[in-house]
């Protein structure tokens, strides 16, 4: 059997879209080694075709950090299928050419998309080139999902939970197109479970100290203040900080000294191990980082969120009692103290709630569905040699 070809289209406006794409690609490699050729690509960034989308995507982090009020306004105003259909028409005009080139060059058996702006351009190209090729979409938000995700073109949507299902149905998506899979995270969360204390030892951490994992980014502010709040805390703690590309934060922290052990990284590929070695996750309310925390069964302390899109993620965490939102250092210390009362009974409760809500197997679920769909694609016919 010839190798199947899976095209995964993603973007780099934030880390979540590409992270989900890479997780599914890794799951395909794990489940079907040597049987699938997978291309993960951002057509806006990784093609030579000029497009007005390139500077828009490149400046995404800066814009949402500098003008969050405008981001909230534009997000809410555009969040309807009527407005989304207008936006989809404009996106198709802009992106159809580069999507067409990407699809024709790679010749996929299936296309998976992890960003809402590509749904309609992908569907238009496939309709014109090869309607037999299936188009699937992974929705990378936990709660307040924008209507733009739910265009009619994809054959299947992989979604996080029942909250997203309600929005999809309201947007006109047939129920048989919806699969509640969770947001794809690294398959290591499901496949490489290791006892927590042994894992800490392998990472150079104290196996017996309460471990807090701080995950930052260029959009997370005041993380240093919450780290400082752990000094003189009363319970032996250690902290791991993954700066997430925030170079200023990374440089500041590697020169700081606290009265507890601190491990500082900038970018870290091995997020699952650090998650599974930790007891508490401290971060912003991004859909992907929260999905990773839930997959690891971690209580989550939210210290930042993006207006509009991530407000629903905050509600999702709070309503399922898998974490808390803290808005200052005093609240941070109070929540931690409350969780640790009575030998950490409440912390264990929150951890169990988090694990019950997580989907460590999400990438494997999506990968299996992709494989099944690719098997339905007919093998290319080989021309018989001419007689004589």
Cα end-to-end separation: 29 Å
Structural class: alpha/beta
> How much helical structure, as a percent, in the residues?
40-55%
What does the main sheet amount to?
6 strands, parallel
**In the CATH classification, which architecture of the largest domain applies?**
3-Layer(aba) Sandwich
Q: Could you say which overall geometry the principal axes of the C-alpha atoms support?
A: elongated
Strand composition percent:
5-15%
Unreliable parts? 68-78, 380-388
Strand order, biggest sheet?
Answer: 2-1-3-4-5-6
Q: What average pLDDT do the residues reach?
A: 86
Q: Write down the domain tally.
A: 2
* Rg: 22 Å
Query: Would you state the CATH class of the largest domain?
Result: Alpha Beta
Order of helices and strands: EHEHHHHEHEEHEHHEHEHEHEHEHEHH
The CATH superfamily of the largest domain is known as: Glycogen Phosphorylase B
CATH topology of the largest domain: Rossmann fold
Q: What is the tally of beta strands? A: 12
Task: Please describe the topology of this protein.
Elements: E1 4-9, H1 16-31, E2 36-41, H2 53-58, H3 60-66, H4 68-78, H5 81-106, E3 110-113, H6 119-129, E4 134-138, E5 156-159, H7 162-170, E6 178-180, H8 188-191, H9 196-202, E7 210-215, H10 223-228, E8 237-242, H11 247-253, E9 262-265, H12 271-276, E10 280-284, H13 287-295, E11 300-304, H14 311-319, E12 323-325, H15 329-357, H16 362-375
Parallel strand pairs: 1-2, 1-3, 3-4, 4-5, 5-6, 7-8, 7-10, 8-9, 10-11, 11-12
Helix pairs in contact: 1-16, 3-4, 5-6
Describe this structure as you would to a colleague.
This protein is α/β, with parallel strands linked by helices and 388 residues long. The chain folds into two domains: 4-184 and 361-375, 3-Layer(aba) Sandwich (Rossmann fold); 188-357, Rossmann fold, CATH 3.40.50.2000. 46% of the residues lie in helices and 15% in strands. It is built from 16 helices and twelve strands. The strands form two sheets. A six-stranded parallel beta sheet has the order 2-1-3-4-5-6, sandwiched between helices. A six-stranded parallel beta sheet has the order 9-8-7-10-11-12. Helix 5 packs across helix 6. The radius of gyration is 22 Å and the shape is elongated. Mean pLDDT is 86; it is low at 68-78 and 380-388.
């Amino acid at each position: 059997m010839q190798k199947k070809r899976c095209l995964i289209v993603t973007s780099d406006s934030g880390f979540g879209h590409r992270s989900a794409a890479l997780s599914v690609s890794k799951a395909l490699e794990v489940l079907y080694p040597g049987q699938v050729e997978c291309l993960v690509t951002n057509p806006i960034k990784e093609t030579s075709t000029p497009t007005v989308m390139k500077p828009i995507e490149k400046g995404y982090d800066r814009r949402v950090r500098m003008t969050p009020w405008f981001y909230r306004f534009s997000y809410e105003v555009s969040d309807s299928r009527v407005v989304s259909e207008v936006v989809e028409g404009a996106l198709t005009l802009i992106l159809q050419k580069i999507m067409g080139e990407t699809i024709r060059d790679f010749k996929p058996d299936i296309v998976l998309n992890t960003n809402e702006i590509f749904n309609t351009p992908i569907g238009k190209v496939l309709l014109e080139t090869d309607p037999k090729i299936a188009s699937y979409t992974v929705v990378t938000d936990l709660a307040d999902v924008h209507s733009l995700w739910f265009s009619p073109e994809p054959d299947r949507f992989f979604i996080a939970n029942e909250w997203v299902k309600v929005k999809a149905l309201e947007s006109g998506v047939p129920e048989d197109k919806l699969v509640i899979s969770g947001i794809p995270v690294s398959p290591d969360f499901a496949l490489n479970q290791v006892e927590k204390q042994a894992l800490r030892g392998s990472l150079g951490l104290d196996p017996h100290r309460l471990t807090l994992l701080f995950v930052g980014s260029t959009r997370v502010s005041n993380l240093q203040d919450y780290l400082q709040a752990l000094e003189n805390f009363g319970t032996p703690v250690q902290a791991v900080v993954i700066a997430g590309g925030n170079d200023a934060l990374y440089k500041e922290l590697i020169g700081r000294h606290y009265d507890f052990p601190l491990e500082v990284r900038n970018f870290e590929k091995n997020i699952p191990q650090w998650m599974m070695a930790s007891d508490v996750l401290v971060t912003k309310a991004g859909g992907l980082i929260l999905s990773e925390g839930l997959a690891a069964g971690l209580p989550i302390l939210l210290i930042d969120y993006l207006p509009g899109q991530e407000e629903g993620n905050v509600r999702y965490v709070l309503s399922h009692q898998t974490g808390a939102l803290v808005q200052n250092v005093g609240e941070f210390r109070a929540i931690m103290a409350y969780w640790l009362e009575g030998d950490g009974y409440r912390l264990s409760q929150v951890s169990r709630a988090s694990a019950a809500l997580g989907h460590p197997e999400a990438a494997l679920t999506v990968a299996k569905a992709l494989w099944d769909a690719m098997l339905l694609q007919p093998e290319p016919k080989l021309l018989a040699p001419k007689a004589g």
